[in-house]
Amino acid sequence: MRAGERVCLAGGVALLVLMFVTQWYGAVELPRHALTAAPPTATGPWSQLRLLRWLMLITALAGIALPGVGLVRRSRYALPAGRVIMVLAVLTSLALFYRVLINPPSAAAIDDVKLGAYLALLSAVAIALGAAETSTLRR
After folding, report:
1. Is 22 helix (H, G, I), strand (E, B) or coil?
2. In a 3-state reduction of DSSP, which class is residue 111?
């Protein structure tokens, strides 16, 4: 397994774990007397990023699959998988950059961005860099 494939695999596993295990956004907590049940104080990407979650999931699975795809012999006319995954990961990175750093979802209900969101952004960038390194080696 090449270094770029290892980076893609690690980035894909990290992004997948960060999507489902960590909290990304801290919610503004309302006073207890305002609601009968305590509101959630943190939320993850699956509930907040309705369209982006699918792009992140596809990117994470593609990053995980890249080392296996590299083992399969392809036609010389086929588009290299590393380039396709690199474009997908760059799109995901740009979308995450926008939703994490510039415009978090529902700004009225979100008061902070948690570490999981920043680590997911770095994971998407790692997938893009690993795929780029893999696609440059295969020329």
Report:
1. coil
2. strand
Range of the domain at 96: 3-28+39-137
The CA–CA distances, whole Å, from 37 to 42, 53, 64, 108 equal 15, 28, 40, 20
pLDDT tens digits along 33-82:
545 555 556 666 777 777 888 999 999 999 998 887 765 555 554 457 78
Sheet holding 25-27, edge to edge: 42-43, 25-27, 110-113
Q: What is the mean pLDDT of residues 22-41?
A: 61
Separation CA 77–CA 75 (nearest Å): 5
Indicate the number of domains in the chain. 1
Give CA separation, 6 vs 21, 69, 133, in Å.
22, 13, 11
Residue 34 lies in a domain: no
Chain-wide mean pLDDT for the chain?
Answer: 79
Helix, strand and coil percent figures for the chain, each rounded to 5: 65, 5, 30
Q: What are phi and psi of 113, to 5 degrees?
A: -105, 130
